[in-house]
Specification:
The complex is a heterodimer.
Chain A: E1 4-7, E2 10-13, E3 19-25, E4 30-31, E5 36-37, E6 39-44, E7 51-55, E8 59-60, E9 68-73, E10 76-81, E11 90-96, E12 103-104, E13 108-112
Parallel strand pairs in A: 2-13
Antiparallel strand pairs in A: 1-3, 3-10, 4-5, 6-7, 6-11, 7-8, 9-10, 11-12, 11-13
Chain B: E1 3-7, E2 10-12, E3 18-25, E4 34-39, E5 45-51, E6 58-60, E7 68-73, E8 78-83, E9 92-101, E10 104-110, E11 114-118
Parallel strand pairs in B: 2-11
Antiparallel strand pairs in B: 1-3, 3-8, 4-5, 4-9, 5-6, 7-8, 9-10, 9-11
The chains are: A mainly beta, B mainly beta.
Chain lengths: 113, 120
C-alpha cells in the first residue's frame, strides 16, 4: 500500500500570512504514460464532509479560491495558502489515487495564530 | 446541483448488520463510478469500497472485505453498502462519494455523511 505522510501535523498562521502543507508518498504517484500525478487535496471544516481542492496535484477544482495552490511531483507535494483567511481554518488531507487501496494522508490542521 | 444524500445509519450491536443507502441527483448517476469512504471519530479518512458504473466491478479495503458489500441500482440512482458482522472499530461517519472522472479516483462530490455506531 502507498503510505502518505503529511507535515506538519498542525500549524497556526496569522491572518494574511502563508501556510504550507507537505505531503510525501512512500512511492511515486506519477504515471509515466500520461505524465500525471495521481494526487488530490481536500479541505475538511469542522462538522462537514471533505471538499475537493486539487486533483492531478495542481489542477484547481472549480470554485476554489486562487490563494490556494498545489504543486509537486513524484513523491513530494505541497499545498500552499498564500494569504490565510479565517474561513480556511480546517484540516487538509492529501490522497493518492495511483493504486489501490487509495489512501489518504493523516491530515494537517490549520488554525489562526 | 449534484447531491448525494445518505441514509440508513444508526446504532447497531456488535455482530449486527446495517445497510446504508446513498441517493444521487443532479448528474447522470450511471455514468460515474462511486465509492464509500469512512472516518472514525477524530480520525482520518479511509477508502472502503468502490463500484464501477454498471456494478460489474467492485473492490474493498482489507478491513471490510468479506463483511461489506457495495452495490448500486442505476434505475433508482442509488448506491448501497450492506454491512454485516459489524465491530466496534467500524464506528465511523460513512460518506458516499463520486469519482471525479473515468480512470481518476479522486472524489469531487461527497455526501453529508452518515454516522454508524457499533456498540452494545
Amino acid at each position: 500500500d502507498i503510505v502518505l505522510t503529511q507535515s506538519p501535523d498542525s500549524l497556526a498562521v496569522s491572518l494574511g500570512e502563508r501556510a504550507t502543507i507537505n505531503c510525501k508518498s512512500s512511492q511515486s504517484v506519477l504515471y509515466s504514460s500520461n505524465n500525471k500525478n495521481y494526487l488530490a487535496w481536500y479541505q475538511q471544516k469542522p462538522g462537514q464532509a471533505p471538499k475537493l481542492l486539487f486533483y492531478w496535484a495542481s489542477t484547481r477544482e472549480s470554485g476554489v479560491p486562487d490563494r490556494f495552490s498545489g504543486s509537486g511531483s513524484g513523491t513530494h507535494f505541497t499545498l500552499t495558502i498564500s494569504s490565510l483567511q479565517a474561513e480556511d481554518v480546517a484540516v487538509y488531507y492529501c490522497q493518492q489515487y495511483y493504486s489501490t487501496p487509495f489512501t489518504f494522508g493523516p491530515g494537517t490542521k490549520v488554525d489562526i495564530k | 446541483e449534484v447531491q448525494l444524500v445518505e441514509s440508513g445509519g444508526g446504532l447497531v450491536q456488535p455482530g449486527g448488520s446495517l445497510r446504508l443507502s446513498c441517493s444521487a441527483s443532479g448528474f447522470i448517476f450511471r455514468n460515474y463510478a462511486m465509492h464509500w469512504v469512512r472516518q472514525a471519530p477524530g480520525r482520518g479518512l479511509e477508502c472502503l469500497s468502490a463500484i464501477s458504473t454498471n456494478g460489474g466491478s467492485t473492490d474493498y479495503a482489507d478491513s471490510v472485505r468479506g463483511r461489506f458489500t457495495i452495490s448500486r441500482d442505476n434505475s433508482r440512482e442509488t448506491l448501497y453498502l450492506q454491512m454485516t458482522s459489524l465491530r466496534a472499530e467500524d464506528t465511523a461517519v460513512y460518506y458516499c462519494v463520486r469519482v471525479g472522472a473515468a480512470g481518476a479516483n479522486y472524489f469531487d462530490y461527497w455526501g453529508q455523511g452518515n454516522l454508524v455506531t457499533v456498540s452494545s
